[in-house]
């Protein structure tokens, strides 16, 4: 950590403790985040909307509560968070990265965000994402491309922050909030977390209410946090999760104290290592990362068990039937009548077609058409039903594995972050391969975590994935803590993005470093 | 699984079913991309699924029941707040019946 560390660089849990000990105030913390956003957002484009006034108002209320009696402080009292633009926020523009939602201002609040405000959290603004969460790089957003705060050693090429929760991962990694909400349909929390050296957890399907989340594929979508530490992820998930009558798939099952679970006994846990994840052409680097994770567990007293998940390879193609099918149905609601964009047309059908043609981007149209095709008369059994049957087999694989192991360890992604625009001309399927290690978890509805496992040869973060039994987020996080303890938390990268709005001291430092061949210094710092 | 190459006419038919207007150029590239995706998902043919039940719900949780009463509503202003066009408490659409 830099010695001139400012408050926005604190972990969520440290900030919580300092707020309660009255070492800092919520206003100071919020202001630190808002100035960090101002200095960084032109370069990183993580925030689509910054709600500074609302944030300061909430922070003031938290300070009053903390001043009256720190014991009355709620779980996230005074903690400034960023919100993925997929969560409806009352009166604050919510676009899901799509032109078709244009200036949509929800007249209601999503359950997940309401839970966070009820826990005392402060809203900094809305974060960029792939359009309707369809993408792995945040490049399909209608509102511009978010940039990863990490760069390869000695390079000034801009990299993607992963996706679809790329605004969330970029903002958290750069210290533009203390944590962010995200959502995960095929890997959209875990892959961006892996690309940015952050922690991301997708809980068990049904843990977090989907009420007020813009729907992509309803049987796969789950909300979860992206944070800078395992403990922070535990604290945020605790506040986000709830049983909610407004979501019929929300599950009424108590969530144990996740923070407490982090300190519980680990020794003797059984870690499954699935051979099918050793995919063809897996890079040496990813293999080495995985081995390192296995070693860490062995040394922590866990038992390593080789397991088989035979239908792993089928998960991705099955996902690319199920998800577009559900998406084509969910996105039928964008008709230019009730909210969002409306284009002119000769008659009502022409109006629908023009509206949807102008309002949706290329990737969204592609998936709507695939979904419509696989659900159309004569093809339903061949594609959709087949994929749902394969999904049963994938779930059965995990059920069998969890008879003998407590968690499963895999890499999160097949590669580190890639260059912005570098896959522009690639086949859509090539981009889909980003999700190869993560989609199985959504297909089976399981909890999955990505935790930083180390750096690539180029100095870019790599993530390890921990998959758990249904509703056993506690053990997943406990296992994640073991990796974090061994590897260490990833630092906030040297702020190459800080513009003129940055503090004078930072600017002077930046200039000095630029003159002094920054990359070496950066490398040292990442150690 | 149906072994099928979709042609441009099929792309247009699906696009119309999905109420998305596509240009001739878009139809051509969509045809190529959709065929690419469909031939990739055909990998699933190799997996035997006879007698396997389709998975429709991962949680397996029963849907909860509640009293059949009105729990929300009477918010016409909120409902119409984001409407592109509305009048007298109604959504406005192009003429549907001649």
TrEMBL record, chain A:
Highest rank taxon of the organism: Bacteria
Record carries keyword Cell inner membrane: no
Sorted UniProt keywords: ATP-binding, Ligase, Nucleotide-binding, Protein biosynthesis, Transferase
Region ranges (Disordered): 494-527
Bias kind Basic and acidic residues: ranges: 506-521
Enzyme class: ligase
Enzyme Commission code(s) on record: 6.3.5.7
Amidase domain mapped to chain residues: 28-477
Keyword Protein biosynthesis tagged: yes
Reactions catalysed, as given in the entry: L-glutamyl-tRNA(Gln) + L-glutamine + ATP + H2O = L-glutaminyl-tRNA(Gln) + L-glutamate + ADP + phosphate + H(+)
Name of a matching Pfam family: Amidase
GO annotation, cellular component aspect: glutamyl-tRNA(Gln) amidotransferase complex
Biological processes annotated in GO: translation
GO molecular function, one term: transferase activity
List of catalytic residues: 84, 164, 188
Annotated function: Hydrolyzes indole-3-acetamide (IAM) into indole-3-acetic acid (IAA).
Quaternary structure note: Heterotrimer of A, B and C subunits.
Protein name: Glutamyl-tRNA(Gln) amidotransferase subunit A
From TrEMBL, chain B:
SUPFAM superfamilies in the cross-refs: Glu-tRNAGln amidotransferase C subunit (SSF141000)
UniProt record, GO biological process: glutaminyl-tRNAGln biosynthesis via transamidation; regulation of translational fidelity; translation
Name of one Pfam family that matches: GatC
Gene3D superfamilies recorded: Glu-tRNAGln amidotransferase C subunit, N-terminal domain
Catalysed conversion reaction: L-glutamyl-tRNA(Gln) + L-glutamine + ATP + H2O = L-glutaminyl-tRNA(Gln) + L-glutamate + ADP + phosphate + H(+); L-aspartyl-tRNA(Asn) + L-glutamine + ATP + H2O = L-asparaginyl-tRNA(Asn) + L-glutamate + ADP + phosphate + 2 H(+)
Enzyme class: ligase
EC nos: 6.3.5.-
InterPro entries xref list: Asp/Glu-ADT_sf_sub_c, GatC
Family indicated by similarity: Belongs to the GatC family.
Subunit structure, interactors included: Heterotrimer of A, B and C subunits.
Protein name: Aspartyl/glutamyl-tRNA(Asn/Gln) amidotransferase subunit C
Chain coiled-coil ranges: none
Superkingdom of origin: Bacteria
Job description of the protein: Allows the formation of correctly charged Asn-tRNA(Asn) or Gln-tRNA(Gln) through the transamidation of misacylated Asp-tRNA(Asn) or Glu-tRNA(Gln) in organisms which lack either or both of asparaginyl-tRNA or glutaminyl-tRNA synthetases. The reaction takes place in the presence of glutamine and ATP through an activated phospho-Asp-tRNA(Asn) or phospho-Glu-tRNA(Gln).
GO MF terms, alphabetically ordered: ATP binding; glutaminyl-tRNA synthase (glutamine-hydrolyzing) activity; transferase activity
């Amino acid at each position: 950590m830099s010695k001139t560390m400012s408050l926005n660089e604190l972990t969520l849990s440290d900030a919580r403790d300092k707020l309660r000990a009255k070492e800092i105030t919520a206003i100071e913390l919020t202001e630190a985040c808002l100035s960090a956003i101002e200095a960084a957002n032109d370069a990183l484009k993580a925030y689509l909307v910054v709600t500074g006034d609302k944030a300061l108002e909430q922070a003031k209320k938290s300070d009053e509560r903390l001043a009256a009696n720190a014991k009355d402080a709620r779980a996230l009292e005074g903690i400034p968070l960023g919100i993925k633009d997929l969560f409806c926020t009352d009166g604050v523009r919510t676009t899901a990265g799509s032109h078709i939602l244009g200036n949509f201002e929800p007249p209601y609040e999503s359950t997940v965000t309401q839970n966070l405000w009820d826990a005392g959290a402060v809203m900094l603004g809305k974060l960029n994402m792939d359009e309707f969460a369809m993408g792995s790089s945040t490049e399909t957003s209608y509102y511009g491309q978010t940039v990863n705060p990490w760069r390869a050693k000695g390079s000034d090429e801009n990299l993607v922050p992963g996706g679809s929760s790329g605004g969330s991962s970029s903002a958290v990694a750069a210290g533009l909030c203390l944590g962010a909400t995200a959502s995960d349909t095929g890997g959209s929390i875990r892959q961006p977390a892996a690309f940015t050296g952050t922690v991301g957890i997708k809980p068990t399907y049904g843990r977090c209410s989907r009420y007020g989340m813009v729907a992509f594929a309803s049987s796969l979508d789950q909300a979860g946090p992206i944070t800078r530490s395992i403990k922070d992820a535990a604290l945020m998930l605790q506040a986000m999760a709830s049983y909610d009558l407004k979501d019929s798939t929300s599950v009424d099952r108590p969530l144990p104290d996740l923070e407490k679970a982090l300190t519980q006994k680990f020794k003797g846990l059984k870690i499954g290592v699935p051979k099918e994840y050793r995919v063809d052409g897996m890079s040496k680097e990813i293999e080495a990362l995985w081995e390192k994770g296995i070693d860490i567990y062995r040394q922590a007293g866990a038992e390593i068990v080789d397991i088989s998940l035979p239908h792993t390879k089928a998960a991705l193609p099955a996902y690319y039937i199920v998800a577009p099918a559900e998406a084509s149905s969910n996105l039928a609601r964008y008709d230019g009548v009730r909210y969002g964009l409306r284009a002119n047309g000769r008659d009502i059908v022409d109006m629908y077609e023009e509206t949807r043609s102008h309002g949706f981007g290329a990737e969204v149209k592609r998936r709507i058409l695939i979904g419509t095709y696989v659900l159309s008369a004569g093809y339903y059994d061949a594609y959709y039903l087949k994929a749902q049957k394969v999904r049963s087999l994938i779930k059965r694989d995990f059920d069998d594995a969890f008879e003998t192991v407590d968690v499963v360890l895999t890499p999160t992604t097949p590669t580190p972050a890639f260059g912005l625009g570098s896959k522009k001309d690639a086949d859509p399927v090539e981009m889909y391969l980003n999700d190869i290690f993560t989609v199985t978890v959504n297909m089976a509805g399981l909890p999955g975590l990505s935790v930083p496992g180390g750096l690539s040869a180029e100095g870019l973060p790599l993530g390890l994935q921990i998959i758990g039994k249904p509703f056993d987020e506690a053990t997943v996080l406990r296992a994640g803590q073991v990796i974090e303890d061994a590897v260490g938390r990833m630092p906030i990268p040297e702020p190459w993005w800080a513009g003129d709005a940055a503090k004078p001291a930072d600017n002077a430092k930046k200039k000095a470093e630029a003159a002094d061949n920054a990359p070496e210094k950066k490398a040292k710092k990442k150690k | 699984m149906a072994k099928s190459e979709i042609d441009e006419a099929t792309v247009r038919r699906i696009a119309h079913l999905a109420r998305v207007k596509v240009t001739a150029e878009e139809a051509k590239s969509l045809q190529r991309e959709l065929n690419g995706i469909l031939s990739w998902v055909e990998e699933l043919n190799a997996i035997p699924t006879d007698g396997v039940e389709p998975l429709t719900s991962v949680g397996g949780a029963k849907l909860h029941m509640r009293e059949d009463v009105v729990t929300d509503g009477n918010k016409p202003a909120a409902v119409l707040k984001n409407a592109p066009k509305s009048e007298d408490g109604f959504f406005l659409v192009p003429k549907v019946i001649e």
